[in-house]
Amino acid sequence: MSTPQRWRRSAWSNLCMQGLFSNKVYVRPLLEYSSIVWGGCTEQQSISFERLQNEAARIVTGLTRSVSLENLYEECGWESLQYRRKLQTCCFMYKVYNNMVPQYVLDLFPININERSNYELRNPENFTVPFSRTTLMRKSCIPNGIDIWNGLDTNVKLSLSLSSFKNIIKDASKSLVKPYYLHGTRILAVQHARIRNRCSNLNLHLFYNHLTISPLCTFCNSVEDAEHFFFVCRRFQTQRLVFFRETRVFHPLSTKTLLFGLDSLSIEGNCKLFEAVHNYIKCTKRFQE
Ligand SMILES: [Zn+2]
């Protein structure tokens, strides 16, 4: 592969990485500034924040509004802001429980059950939830933090260090994005991601999204879904021969393999497979129409 081609291929990865990086470094800290204090905001305010991040995720991935938020976040590997606020509150409460915050912060919390009672109690590491007369008070920093802390499993609360506590409460799968999803040139990776998320220009996807009246392939007169595009459509027989030759080592192929990769393959193997898929998408010119 020539150097300019290599540059072009890495452009999407770079752009996507830049988007992911910019969000993490420049945007998200602003959206989360002091979130422990205002984390108990109203549902409507929380939705507004999420919308902002959803829009950023759509820009980075190139996916459309028809894609579910679950799939959108799987593509970019982000967590919802609400989920992150809860994690931050958990960490803050761990520090409170272990006296890792200044005294003036500790003074705001009631003593925990362990210190209050001489009896053997079921959850001695819990805090007593302070009485709140209004919902606003109940959702404010301290009652909300205590609520979240009391809801954690005892073994988690008794973690030996903050880092082990973080590792246990953080659901690692939520922040992992498959690296080969970011591989290749941006335009082809976006078209691939759109097929994966059923928002491409294939007629079945347009039909799902109420953008066409028929899901049929205009050439073959059968439903034009991803399987039809990759394996059946008579329009692309020549391109398919090349595609199958390029992917011989990955046979037998399935639509799922072509769209999501194979867990049994290495990252490099999946990147090669995705390169072949991108090449097929490019050669068919199906998405340039
Ligand atoms: Zn067809």
Written overview of the protein:
By secondary structure, the chain is mainly alpha-helical. It folds into 2 domains: 1-177, no CATH class; 200-207 and 215-288, no CATH class. The protein is 58% helix and 0% strand. The chain is built from 17 helices and no strands. It has helices at residues 3-31, 35-38, 43-61, 69-76, 81-97, 103-106, 113-116, 135-138, 141-150, 154-157, 162-169, 186-196, 203-208, 226-232, 237-246, 255-260, 267-284. Helix 3 (43-61) packs across helix 4 and helix 15 packs antiparallel against helix 17 (267-284). The longest helix has 29 residues, at 3-31. It is elongated, with a radius of gyration of 25 Å. Zinc ion (ZN) binds at residues 217, 219-220, 224, 228, 233-235. Residues 217, 219-220, 224, 228, 233-235 line the site of zinc ion.
What characteristics describe this protein?
single chain; mainly alpha; 2 domains; 17 helices; elongated; binds zinc ion
